[in-house]
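Notes from the 1:1 (GR / supervisor)

We went over the backlog. Supervisor wanted to see one worked example end to end before approving the batch request, so GR pasted a single chain during the call. The sequence is below; no edits were made to it. Supervisor asked that the structure be written out right there so they could see what the output format looks like.
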Amino acid sequence: MRPVDRSRALQRRSRYETFEERLALTAQPLSDVSLGMEQRLQQHYSELAPAETVNPIGDFQLETVADEQISHHAGTVTGATGDVHDLTGVNYVYGNYGFAGQGQTVAIIDSGIAWDHIALGGGFGADYRVVGGYDFAERDADPYDDGPSGFHGTHVAGIVGSSDATHRGVASSVDLVGLRVFDDSGAGYFSLVEEALQWVHVHRNDFENPITTVNLSLGTTWNADSVPAWSTLEDEFAQLEADGIFIAVSAGNSFSSYNTAGLSYPAASPYVVPVASVDGNGSISGFSQRSDRVLAAPGRNITSTVPDHVFGADGNPNDFGTSSGTSMASPYVAGASVLVRQAMEFAGFQNITQDTIYDHLRSTASIVYDAATSASYHLINLEAAIKALMPADDYGSTIATAYSLGTLADNMSLSGIIGTMSDADYFTFTAAQTGRATFSFDTTHELKLDALLVAGSSSFTDDVLTIDIIAGKTYTFSLSTTGGIGHYSASIELTTTNGGGAQSGSGNSAGEGESQVDPIAKAAYDLDQAKGLKFAGKDYLNWGGTNEKWLQGNDGWYFVRPNGQVYKWAGSGKATGTLVATLDASYYNDLSKLYDAKAPVSSGGDTNSGGKNASTGDQTTSGGTGGESGSAKDTNSGANDSNSGAESTLAARARELDSQYGFKTDGKYYENWAGQGEKWFKSDKLGWVFITPDGSLYDWNGNLTSAINSPKIAQLDASFHKDPKLLTDPPADSGSSSGDQGKSTGGTNGGTGDNSTDTGQGENSSGNGSASGNTLAKKAYELDQQLGLRSTGNYYTNWAKLGEKWMTSASGQWYFIKPDGSLYRWNGSQANAASSALVAKLDASFHATPSKLHDAPSVNSTSTVQEAYYVDLQYATTIIDTQWATTGSLPTRQSVFDHAASARAQVFESRATIRESLAACASATSRLSFFAAYEQEASYPYTDGIGAATRLSSADATLAVDHVYEGLRSEDLRVEQEEGDETP
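Structure output shown during the call:
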C-alpha cells in the first residue's frame, strides 16, 4: 500500500510490536513430522537502532526492542556505510572509475522498499530509481515497506544503492525492484519467495536496465553445506543462474548456536552465492555462519536507509538507522557484483555469468583467517577486482609523452579510452597546411569528454574540438573527463583557407601579399558574435575560487581563467563548466577584448601583422615569447593614432592629466579591488585613483563599497583601462610622425619574453619586451635563490587540471606554474589547487621552459627583500587563516612565531623585525582580517594593506590595523634606505 494508505503502520509507529521469539518475522514453525507446512523463515539482522546507539545483539535472532531504543533519529548519523567502503575498495572504485551501477537493476526480495526515501529516488515507477516490483503478501503492485516491523528491505536496498553523499550505497546509481515476501506481522513464506524468484525470471528484461542481480537477506534455522530435504527453491535458483543473474544470499547469524562451519538455507543452495559478515576491522563477525564457499563483506554496524515511520513519521523520508547481520553483508556483495559486471562490460567481456563474477571476486579477494574454525575466508576487495579488469592506458598522459599523430595533411580517425577519472590522453600533430582541423568525437558508457588545446586558438562544444591551424606549426591537445569514463572515437576533418602558408614571424613572407588572420582574435570574435557576450558591470573576480572573471552571454554565464580559457558555466557549483574557447592571458586581463571583440583583420601586405606595414612603417609583430600579435598599442583606440599621422586628442589629454596629477605605479594595477573591474594607481596630488573598463577615471572617495560613486576626473576610452601605462607613463608627443610610436611591437603584452628583441625590421621593434624580459629574469633568479626551487625530473603537467607544471623547494614545499606564468605555492589539495597562494607573476615562457625558473641564471642587479616579505607574510597568513577556518579560534603567539620562523629560514635571514610584527599582531580578529586580506590579494604592497583590512574589519579595529601597518611599513622604509631599493 502507498504511504497515504498505511494507517495501521502509523498507529504503531512508536515502537516495534512485541512478539514471541518463535513468531518474529517467521512463518509457522515446521513440525518435525509435518513436511506439508512452511519452514521457518527469518531475516538475518540485529534489531535496528538509531545510528548513535547501536549495540550488536549476541545471537542475532530477532528479539523485542525496548521503546527507548526506537527514538527518532534526526541529523547526521555516525558509523556511516562509507566507513567500510575503504576496507573493501568501494571508495577507490567510485573515485577512480566512477562506477556506480549505471545500466543495471537489482531485485530486493524482502519486506519491501520505502521507495519514497530521498536516497532511493523519492518515487516509484519508470521515472524513478525503484522502477517496479510486487507485493506478494498483499497481492498488489505496490511493494512499499510499511509493516509495523518494516525497515529491513529498505535498509538492505540502501546498502545496495543509496545515493546519499554520507551513507552512499555500494552501487549508488543502480535501479531497484522491490519484491515483498513478508507480511505486516513480519512473517515470511517460502511459497512467496518462490513466486518472487519466478517473477524475476519473467520480468528480468522489462525495465530500461535489465535485472542482473537478486538479493535475499533471509533464511532458516539450518547449518550445513547441503540443502535440506524440504527445500523448495532450487528450480528457481537454477533458472536465474542460467539467466546470468547473480544471486546473493545471507549466510545466517547462528554461528554461536552451532560453533562449526555451515550455512543457513537458502544460502546453502549450490546455485547462489552465500555471504558472511566481517566486522569493521575485517575479521569474521562472531555471529556469522560461514563455509568455504562464502564471500565475506561488511555486516556489523552498517548505516543505511529506513522508512519514515520507523523512528516516528515526520513527513520527511530521509531517515537512516544502523543494524548488523549477514542481512547487511549480502546486499554489500550484491552491489559489488554490479560493479564487477559493469567493469567487465567496459572491458568487453561477453556472456557474463554469476560464476564469472564470483570466481573473479574470489581470485582478487583479501584472505581473512578465522581462529574459531581455523580456516581462511575471502573478503571482497573491489579495488583489486576492478583494477584487474580495466584496460591499460593507451596514450601518454603528459605533454612530454604526447602521442604523435604525425603531419596532419588528410582526413583521418582517432580512438582511445579515458580509463580513470584522472586520466588524460595527450596528442600532438604538425599542420601540413593552414586552415582548420575539426575533431568530432563519439563517446561510450558514462564518459563526458573534455578537450583542451595547450596553446593556440580552439573551441570545444558538443563534443567537437575545432583548432585553427597554421602550416608547419605543431599543436598539442589533451582529452580528459568531466564525469565518468569510457571509450572515444573521432573523425578528423581538415579545411584549408585560401592564401594559406607558413606563418610569418620575421616580417618577410606575409608581407609579400599573403593573407592570414590571427586565430585567437578570430576565436574571440566568433564567440562574441555567437553568444552575445556582455560585461555585467563587474567581473566577479574569483567567485568560483579559480581567479576567474565572469561575463554574460545570451545563453547564460561565462567565465575566463587567467590563462585565457573561456568556459560556459554549468549553472551550479562554482567555476565548473564546458571549455568553449582557448584564447590567451590578454583576454583575461582585458575582458573588453572578448565582450567587445573586433572583427580580426588579415595580416601581411598592408595590415597589422608581419612584413612591411603600409600604415605604420617597418613594424613587425613577433614580439616576445607569448606576445600578442599586432596590438602592442591599439592604433584604433586613439591613444596613439598612427594611422592619422597626428597624435590623438585622448593621448594628449592623458599627458595633460599625468602632468596635472602626477600619476605613478609600482608596476601593479590591483585589478578589481572594489569589484568594478577597475584598475588602480597613485596620484601625487589625489592619492589613489582608478579607471573602469569603459575608460572612466575616478578620484577614490576612500570607501570600497561605494567606490563607483567617487568623483570622476576624466572620460577616456577602454584602451586606457587595458593599458594604464598610457596614463601613468604616457608616450611623448609624436606630432605628425609616420606612426612608429603607434605600433611598438612586443609592446605591453607581447614584449615580456626573452626573445622580444628578435622582431624583424621594425624601427621600434623591441617595444617594452627587452626591459620586461630582463626584469622577469631578475625576478626569477631572486625567487629561485629564496625558495631553492628544483625539478624532480618530471613536471607532472596538468595534474591539477590547470595546465600547470610542478617543482619543489628546498623545504619540500610544492610549487606550480600556470601557462600564463603565474607561480603558486600549492595548498595541498588537488581538487582546489586553483585557490593556492599566488607567489609571483612571470610570463608564459617560464611555463614553457620551467628551468628558466628552477635553474634561473644569475642576473647582475641589486636584490631586494620586498618579494621575500610577501613570501614570509603569506606563510604566516596561511597558518592563521587555516586555524581560524577549522577551529574558529586564533593560533597562539608562539605558533605564529614558530611558523614565521620557519618561513624566515627559507628566505632572507634579516627579517626578524617582520617576524616579530607578525607574532605581535596575531591575537585579534581584526588583525586576522589584515592577514587574510594579504592571503586573498597577495600582490598588494603593504601600503594597500590598511585599505584591505579596513574593508574586512570593524571600524573600531583601526588602531590595531594601523599598528600592524606602521610596523611593516617602517621596516620597508628601513630596507629601502639601506639597500637603495626604489620599489615602493
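Supervisor's comment: The chain has 26 helices and 37 strands.
Batch request approved.
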